[in-house]
């Protein structure tokens, strides 16, 4: 088995394991989990931008860096939208009683 096939197996098994683990996360932990994923995606965005700026004339690196940047940006924006939606759900369920808020 060559290195590329091994990497594909690791990607496949990691994806399946990730789906199984995320499916078992209780709803109360989704917001902290999403903020952690946003932080990791922010680091991925910085790495992708660094790759793109240093790729030079290498088309493959430009394509891979652009794909990584796009997927990380999609994850960050989606994470913020989901987090905002969940926080709105918690806010609208409470009655405001006096106070400064």
TrEMBL record:
Domain NAD(P) transhydrogenase alpha subunit C-terminal, first and last residues per copy: 8-91
Known role: The transhydrogenation between NADH and NADP is coupled to respiration and ATP hydrolysis and functions as a proton pump across the membrane.
UniProt xrefs under Pfam families: PNTB_4TM
Native source organism of the sequence: Candidatus Synechococcus spongiarum
Gene Ontology cellular-component annotations: plasma membrane
Transmembrane segments: 33-52, 59-82
Protein name from the UniProt record: proton-translocating NAD(P)(+) transhydrogenase
Molecular function, one GO term: NADP binding
Principal location listed in the UniProt entry: membrane
Membrane topology: Multi-pass membrane protein
EC numbers: 7.1.1.1
Record's subcellular location: Cell inner membrane
Keywords (A to Z) from UniProt: Cell inner membrane, Cell membrane, Membrane, NAD, NADP, Oxidoreductase, Translocase, Transmembrane, Transmembrane helix
Membrane recorded as keyword: yes
GO biological process: NADPH regeneration
Catalysed transformations (reactions): NAD(+) + NADPH + H(+)(in) = NADH + NADP(+) + H(+)(out)
């Amino acid at each position: 088995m060559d290195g590329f096939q091994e990497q594909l197996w690791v990607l496949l098994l990691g994806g399946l394991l990730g789906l199984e683990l995320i499916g078992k996360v209780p709803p109360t932990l989704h917001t902290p989990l999403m903020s952690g994923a946003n932080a990791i995606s922010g680091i991925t965005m910085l790495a992708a931008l660094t790759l793109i700026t240093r790729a030079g004339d290498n088309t493959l690196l430009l394509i891979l860096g652009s794909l990584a940047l796009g997927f990380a940006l999609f994850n960050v924006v989606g994470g913020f939208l989901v987090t905002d939606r969940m926080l709105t759900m918690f806010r609208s369920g409470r009655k405001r009683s006096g106070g400064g808020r």
